[in-house]
Design a protein that fits this description.
The complex is a heterotrimer of chains A (about 300), B (about 130) and C (about 300). Chain A is α/β, with parallel strands linked by helices and about 300 residues long. Chain A contains eleven helices and eleven strands. In chain A, the strands form two sheets. Chain A has a nine-stranded mixed β-sheet, with helices on both faces. A two-stranded antiparallel sheet of chain A has the order 4-5. In chain A, strand 4 and strand 5 form a beta hairpin. Chain A is elongated. In chain B, strands 3-2-1-4-5-6 form a six-stranded mixed β-sheet, sandwiched between helices. In chain B, strand 4, helix 2 and strand 5 form a beta-alpha-beta unit. The radius of gyration of chain B is 14 Å and the shape is globular. Chain C is of the alpha/beta class and about 300 residues long. Chain C folds into two domains: about 220 residues, P-loop containing nucleotide triphosphate hydrolases (Rossmann fold), CATH 3.40.50; about 60 residues, Alpha-Beta Plaits (2-Layer Sandwich), CATH 3.30.70.20. The longest helix of chain C is centred in the C-terminal third of the chain and has 21 residues. Chain C is elongated and about 70 Å long. The two termini of chain C are about 15 Å apart. The chains are: A alpha/beta (about 300), B alpha/beta (about 130), C alpha/beta (about 300). Chains in contact: A-B, A-C, B-C. Chains A and B meet through strand 4, helix 5 and helix 6 of A and helix 1 and helix 2 of B.
Chain lengths: ~300, ~130, ~300
């Protein structure tokens, strides 16, 4: 299975849950991908030894000034104004370029070549308890996280893993969309407060937009109100686990200790969480299969998504 | 020569707009005849790369000098490459600024004055197939 | 008129709680100034939950463009799919279609199509609002799910806040920033006079604080730091102080872990209004005072 652990609101405990889940099922050698490439933290808890590294770049245009006639076609086709012709000279603005290749294709003199503009780096290696770990790290000053996340997902530094856990960034915009796409399930970690609920709603809208089933983990349970409970009940979103508000958990995580290492009594709960997610995925796939075969009407309920 | 001033309205009395890339209008004045024309800035609503697009527009118009409040780094690079002189002012009407320019009272810009204005030009994408 | 942005690197360190408290103190505290607020965390905008805003205007946000194929003109040659680098063009039974979520708006397909069957269509990517809040005008937004161009929306919100502040002679724009260090953060930080970094002393928090400080430095924005949940991990707090000292960055205050912050949020108030005598509120008053003097020092 491919599971994305996301949240909407930042700081709810995505990395805490993702790393604990990986440790709880370490016996099946899961892969943990830290897709929060702007601020990756999972390595703190799983202590990987990186033995593979790959630099990620975006192909940006480089113009051969000898062949260039200054016709301006490149500037005309560029939707981002990343390449302009000024005073007969072609200027490229790398931070505006999306690497689409259009200018290169359209240059009538074939005067443009693409060269990589470094954005970030991917790193992989074995971590605690046989967990296979990989992360992406965006270079400081680079605006675009998505290409790094995309390459991280495509990279196969390990032989095919059966279980991939993707630790997502906070928010609901493109980096989160990229981290969710292709997953079988999204586990949303929330806190039972108005901020948590507000952002959970947005995250659920996102999972519905992408048509991927979702479930919730309520972290710091007891801290706020029952808005999240009510919402999940009304929208029929399964709450798969609750972690109580507990200062000692907060402090252990602050020190860099994985939840299930500081408190091994949580291990069975995380294993149960994994099993529940697997079963929700199986039942959704079963329904999808029945739908495809026409043995089920199209308004049959889909687990957790609508 | 042709001189451009970043303005808020299409009038010669318009107040200076500080930001180069996203001004509403360029007032382009012939400094010899004082004939002028106002052009809507094609980059005003650009998703990103406003500075470079605006610079390209002025280069296409044959402008040789421009007066604005802030020139971001991309705009600066582009205008400089086309040898378009940049002058800075904090406020004033376009017609008065033309006088200031001719009387050499304006400060010439030799480096980017404004911060990069990230209009979200990088909308998060760009992965190779 | 000055502009202050509140950032963190790591999510959940308390940016919005701090922003709301500063807004309250600006309006009702000991050092009062006139402010405009902007919530730049456009895909998870929470500031309105503690400011009781009244919406005055609502506008569509036009993000970017996406490509669309006119099936009548399409010859099914597949050239578009061959050039698309964003996996946005899919073929099913000979019919080519563009996925608007994946489409980056680069228009490479438009220019290669031999029958000119593809055009670029503007997309409404969200909404933005001007509201009146308890402490001043508030500009905020909602990006629609799975939409791009959050950076552009952030810039738009900030521009409107700035223009209003200039027109109506407010003293300060306070921008509640997003987590991370990428595009929306860069847009939020651009052009700001001062960045207040709300740091958390956990190992992850310190790690991410370094990255956001490197980012604000990269873009030339002066930064100061305040430590939230300061008693969570004393080793972390010391590390923050040591790093900031080494980098010449001022740590202007420490807010101890205080449940009043969550209670205040649940009640829809800034903590300084909800429980003015609590530990967090006392710390925040000191922080606000120092923010104002740093901004004043910039003038000199």
């Amino acid at each position: 299975m491919i599971l994305t652990v996301a949240s909407g609101k930042g700081g709810t405990g995505k990395t805490t849950v993702a790393t604990s889940l990986a440790l709880a099922v370490a016996d099946i050698s899961p892969v943990l991908l830290d897709c929060d490439v702007e601020a990756p933290n999972a390595h703190i808890f799983l202590q990987p030894q990186f033995d593979q590294r790959r630099e990620i770049g975006l192909p940006i245009p480089e113009v051969d000034e000898v062949r260039c006639t200054g016709c301006g076609r490149c500037a005309e086709v560029c939707q981002y104004h990343a390449i302009v012709v000024m005073g007969g000279k072609v200027l490229v603005f790398p931070e505006l370029c999306h690497g689409c290749g259009s200018c290169t294709l359209q240059c009538p003199e074939e005067a443009i070549e693409e060269v990589p503009n470094l954005l970030g780096v991917l790193e992989a290696g074995p971590a605690k308890d046989g967990i296979r770990f990989a992360q992406g790290v965006l270079n400081i000053g680079e605006p675009m996280a998505v290409p790094v996340i995309h390459e991280l997902k495509q990279w196969r530094p390990f032989p095919e893993g059966h279980t991939i856990i993707r630790d997502a960034p906070p928010g609901n915009s493109c980096p989160v969309v990229e981290t969710i796409q292709g997953a079988d399930f999204v586990l949303l970690v929330t806190e039972p407060t108005p901020f948590g609920l507000h952002d959970l709603r947005l995250a659920i809208q996102l999972t519905r937009e992408l048509d991927i089933p979702a479930g919730v983990v309520v972290n710091r349970d007891g801290v706020g109100d029952d808005g999240v409970e009510e919402y999940c009940r009304k929208e029929r979103i399964p709450i798969l686990m609750r972690i109580p508000l507990d200062q000692s958990i907060g402090k252990a995580v602050a020190r860099g200790e994985a939840l299930v290492e500081a408190f091994p009594e949580y291990l069975p709960q995380f294993r149960e969480l994994y099993a529940q997610i697997q079963s929700l995925i199986d039942s959704r796939q079963g329904e999808a299969l029945q739908l495809a075969r026409g043995t089920r009407s199209s308004n049959g309920s889909k687990a957790g998504s609508l | 020569m042709k001189l451009a001033i970043t303005g808020g309205t299409p009038q010669i009395e318009t107040q200076l707009e500080r930001r180069f890339g996203r001004c509403a209008y360029f007032i382009i004045v012939d400094t010899e005849t004082r004939a002028w024309e106002a052009f809507p800035n094609p980059a005003a609503e650009a998703r990103g790369g406003a500075g470079t697009q605006a610079a390209q527009f002025l280069a296409n118009q044959g402008v040789e000098a421009v007066i604005s409040g802030d020139f971001g780094p991309n705009a600066f690079t582009a205008l400089d490459a086309a040898s378009i002189q940049m002058y800075t002012a904090q406020e004033g009407q376009a017609d008065t600024l033309v006088d200031d320019f001719l009387a050499e009272r304006l400060v010439r810009v030799t480096g980017s004055t404004g911060p990069a204005h990230h209009g979200g030009g990088r909308s998060q994408g760009g992965r190779r197939r | 008129m000055k502009q202050l942005v509140i950032l963190s690197g790591k999510g959940g360190t308390g940016k919005t709680s701090v922003a709301a408290a500063l807004a309250h103190l600006a309006t009702e505290g000991a050092q009062q100034i006139s402010i405009v607020l902007a919530d730049a965390d456009v895909d998870a905008a929470n500031l309105e939950l503690v400011l009781a805003p009244r919406k005055l205007t609502q506008e569509d946000f036009w993000g970017g463009k996406v490509a669309a194929i006119d099936q009548a003109a399409c010859s099914g040659c597949g050239e578009c799919a061959a050039v698309c680098r964003f996996e946005a063009i899919h073929e099913t039974d000979g019919v080519y279609e563009i996925d608007p979520i994946a489409c980056e708006g680069c228009a490479a397909c438009v220019y290669v199509c031999p029958t000119e069957a593809i055009s670029m269509v503007d997309q409404i990517a969200g909404e933005w609002y001007r509201s009146e809040s308890r402490y001043g005008p508030l500009f905020h937004a909602a990006l629609y799910p799975a939409q791009e161009n959050s950076g552009k929306l952030v810039t738009l919100i900030k521009q409107h806040a700035k223009l209003l502040a200039l027109d109506d002679t407010h003293d300060l724009v306070i921008v509640d920033g997003p987590p991370g260090i990428g595009c929306p953060v860069i847009s939020a930080a651009s052009g700001e006079d001062l960045a207040l970094i709300v740091a958390e002393p956990s190992i992850a928090g310190v790690h991410d604080m370094r990255r956001i400080l490197q980012t604000t430095e990269h873009f030339g924005v002066q930064s100061i730091v305040c430590i939230n949940k300061a008693d969570l991990f004393s080793k972390g707090t010391k590390e923050i102080e040591a790093y900031c000292q080494e980098q010449g960055i001022e740590v202007i205050g420490s807010i101890p872990f205080d449940l009043n912050i969550t209670r205040a949020m649940a009640s829809g108030d800034p903590v300084t209004a909800y429980e003015p005598d609590g530990d967090a509120s006392q710390a925040l008053r000191g922080i606000w005072k120092r923010v104002l003097s740093v901004l004043k020092e910039q003038e000199e």
